[in-house]
Amino acid sequence: MRIAILSDTHGSLDAFNKVLEIAKPYDYIIHAGDILYHGPRNPLPEGYNPAELAKAINKLDVPFIAAAGNCDAPIDQVVLSVPIQSPYALLIIDGCKILITHGHQTTEEELISLAKKWKIDILITGHTHVKVLEKKEGLILLNPGSCALPKDGTPSFAIFEKSNLSLVNIETGDPIKSIAL
């Protein structure tokens, strides 16, 4: 099982396509929110084309699991054939429980408490545009950063395969950091 994990595309078809090219082959795609719209505080990302990004998502032949971000709106569901779940998406694959949320409505402490209550293995958030991959209180915390508008200098996404989770630089395709499950 191979899963591509991204967040904060903000309408960038170019960034989305780069992630898919580097990540292939993949069995699932997880998106932690802010899919189509760039938002009023963000510049237009390179390759901004939300209509074509929606078409690309709709053409996927693998499951696309998405949690709603603060820039996602109900009208986005009109152009997307996949549901944007809010505020959480829960995925259980091969016994691994994955909780996905954008993270803009809740503190990290509240999310960790919820994840522990639900016996989650991996907590995925977005929103900050800053990548994080760490173990905390027996839980793996992942923010794949932003593939379109990174605030830490490097556009990124993550790959989850077997018992390994890695952050990946989309400019080079090289791993940035990995953690074993």
Automatic annotation (TrEMBL):
Enzyme Commission numbers on file: 3.1.4.-
InterPro entries, per database record: Calcineurin-like_PHP_lpxH (IPR024654), Metallo-depent_PP-like (IPR029052), MetalloPDE_YfcE-like (IPR053193), MPP_YfcE (IPR041802), Phosphodiesterase_MJ0936/Vps29 (IPR000979)
Calcineurin-like phosphoesterase domain ranges (all copies): 1-161
SUPFAM superfamilies registered for this protein in UniProt: Metallo-dependent phosphatases
Coiled-coil ranges from the UniProt annotation: none
Alphabetized UniProt keyword annotations: Metal-binding
Cofactor(s) the protein requires to work: a divalent metal cation
Keyword Metal-binding: yes
Domain of life, source organism: Bacteria
GO molecular function per UniProt: hydrolase activity; metal ion binding
Family of the protein in this entry: Belongs to the metallophosphoesterase superfamily. YfcE family.
NCBIfam families per UniProt: PRK09453.1, yfcE
Protein name as catalogued: Phosphoesterase
Phylogenetic classification of the source organism: Bacteria, Bacillati, Bacillota, Clostridia, Thermosediminibacterales
